[in-house]
Amino acid sequence: MGALSGRTALVTGGGRGIGRAISERLGRDGARVGVHYSGDETAAKETAAAIEAAGGEAFTLRATLGAPGDAEALWSAFDAHADGLDILVNNAGINKTLDNTLRPFTEMTRADVEHLFAVNSTAPFFVIQEGLSRLRDGGRIVNVSTGLTQTAPQSELLAYAMSKGAVDVLTRGLAQELGPRGITVNAVSPGAVDTDMNAAWLRGADNAAARAATGARSPLGRVADPTDIGDIVAFLASNDSRWVTGQWIDATGGALL
């Protein structure tokens, strides 16, 4: 039996990148995994299929986060597949503006900033609030933040880092709030990870120098793979982490040293 056998997990944005790595690792550890997606149904179904091919259980559910009623829609879709929850991973997030670009601080519009906060900060707040009636005592909440909240981010990522800073505060506050129920709440904070989101500057021959420079920021000398983050989340989802709560976990490979 796996460490998470008999437990049900929900991973927002669970079909791609870090979310897929988290979903697949939780599935390998025995959890039944709800793979949430917003737009990419194909990726979510591929992730669920990969979990099942490895001997696990999974289902997909769709909800667009960052809009009014998003949490209610998410949990309504979840309830069609499961009658309770043990592990909630708030992974879904964005780092770009409404038109899917990166723009410097001086060019960010109010709509851009509000969109980032709606998806990255407000959505997790209400997803957790709405989900507490489903989350069993002794459960786990893991929020995916960013190493940028502990440094001075570049201009194009300032609003993104601010929105994730709110997640760090949410994590600490809820750890205190939910401790009496035996629920732990922690934040995992990656640095640069080799995902589709970062492909434009980490992949391909034209970006070899940028990749090398990014990897050199870590004492371990490489860029993170999504599985590096998924494995940390799996620890926090397990009983082995029962005495860890309210923590900001540096998952940058030591890049902040």
Shape: globular
- Oligomer state equals single chain
Question: β content, as a range?
Answer: 15-25%
Instruction: Please identify the structural class as seen in this structure.
Output: alpha/beta
Number of strands: 7
Supply the CATH superfamily name: NAD(P)-binding Rossmann-like Domain
Spatial gap, N to C terminus:
38 Å
Q: List the uncertain runs.
A: none
Explain what you see.
The chain is an alpha/beta fold. The chain has one domain: NAD(P)-binding Rossmann-like Domain (Rossmann fold, 3-Layer(aba) Sandwich), CATH 3.40.50.720. The relative contact order is 0.14. It has a seven-stranded parallel β-sheet with strand order 3-2-1-4-5-6-7, with helices on both faces. It is 40% helix and 17% strand. The mean pLDDT is 94. Helix 1 runs parallel beside helix 2 and helix 4 packs parallel to helix 5. The chain starts with 7 loop residues before the first strand and ends in a 6-residue tail after the last strand. It contains eight helices and seven strands.
For the structure shown, list the relevant keywords.
Rossmann fold, seven-stranded parallel sheet, 257 residues, alpha/beta, single chain, 8 helices
What's the arrangement of secondary structure elements?
Layout: E1 8-11, H1 17-28, E2 32-37, H2 41-53, E3 57-62, H3 70-79, E4 85-90, H4 110-131, E5 135-144, H5 158-178, E6 184-190, H6 199-202, H7 208-216, H8 226-237, E7 248-251
Parallel strand pairs: 1-2, 1-4, 2-3, 4-5, 5-6, 6-7
Helix pairs in contact: 1-2, 1-8, 3-4, 4-5
